[in-house]
Amino acid sequence: MQARTGIIGGSGLYDIQGIEVIDTLEIETPYGKPSDQLLLATINGHEVVFLPRHGRDHSTPPHKINYRANIYAMKLAGVNRIISISAVGSLRQEIEPGHFVLVDQFVDRTHGRENTFFDGPIVAHVSMADPVCSCLKKELLTACSGASITTHASGSYLVMQGPQFSSRAESELYRNWGMDVIGMTNMPEAKLAREAEICYATVAMSTDYDCWHEEEEDVSVQSIVAVMHGNVAKAQAMLQCFFKDSSDKHVCSCGCSTALENGVFADLKKQSDDALRPIHALVERLL
Ligand SMILES: CSC[C@H]1O[C@H](OP(=O)(O)O)[C@H](O)[C@@H]1O
Ligand SMILES: Nc1ncnc2[nH]cnc12
């Protein structure tokens, strides 16, 4: 199967312009159903698999997204790298609403979300030291500049539980921690992508200044939506640039695609079929 690029669309991004649809994939995974059907399509001849993270009608809130089903479905669909597109609040004056940030680190403050495929009896511990694929991120930076989008080449994303926005004290705390943007969805998504040996990189689109900013109104859905429409148009342009330049023969030299090789605790060859079944697509190449 040709390696495919997955696109996970966040708030506002429910379809991709300029694609030729090949099929809609109704995928059932050992973890249940993904957020919606996956769209198999081509953009400028490149095969992509698109999934709107909250569903096409945005009916699934961040804490109820079945992240395991989403990532497992991407794996089953032959995806070897994921472009995550996300709306975020800005925690820095210089990251203005409408700017993009190519995230390189996350701090995970979520709770109660299923965050691993290795839930026993097969145990694994993958490295999350560098949660973002630097090769993919570099290609995304080129695409953002090709689309003339004001883009910050690095940044740390605080993943809050939500669905409520943060308090002023939390917002200040995260700024003091050195965080640059805040959102609710990229964890456990990035962790699960790493366990699935899928390269992952986030294009964070700033929609607001969160509530720390004294001269700006406190964040609200209304204010976000106003900026979001412009951001989504930029994301569409960025994707066109990405698939004009990018090669399908994506070779990752930063270890995402071999993350499990030093991470699995058990001898996979000695495991029962029952133990292997829920992770078969992830460990198949190691058996
Ligand atoms: C509608 S604003 C809050 C919402 O938007 C972001 O989601 P996504 O990352 O899918 O774009 C943020 O994390 C919140 O879930
Ligand atoms: N200020 C904010 N906090 C959390 N998630 C967001 N998504 C967009 N803006 C946000």
UniProtKB/TrEMBL annotation:
Q: Where does phosphate bind?
A: S11, R53, H54, S86, A87, T185
Pathway given for this chain reads: Amino-acid biosynthesis; L-methionine biosynthesis via salvage pathway; S-methyl-5-thio-alpha-D-ribose 1-phosphate from S-methyl-5'-thioadenosine (phosphorylase route): step 1/1
Give a short account of what the protein does: Catalyzes the reversible phosphorylation of S-methyl-5'-thioadenosine (MTA) to adenine and 5-methylthioribose-1-phosphate. Involved in the breakdown of MTA, a major by-product of polyamine biosynthesis. Responsible for the first step in the methionine salvage pathway after MTA has been generated from S-adenosylmethionine. Has broad substrate specificity with 6-aminopurine nucleosides as preferred substrates.
Does the keyword DNA repair belong to this entry?
no
Which UniProt keywords are given for this protein, alphabetically ordered? Glycosyltransferase, Purine salvage, Transferase
Q: What is this protein called?
A: S-methyl-5'-thioadenosine phosphorylase
Annotated EC: 2.4.2.28
A GO CC annotation recorded here is:
cytosol
Which Gene Ontology BP terms does the record give? L-methionine salvage from methylthioadenosine; purine ribonucleoside salvage
| Domain of life from the UniProt record | Bacteria
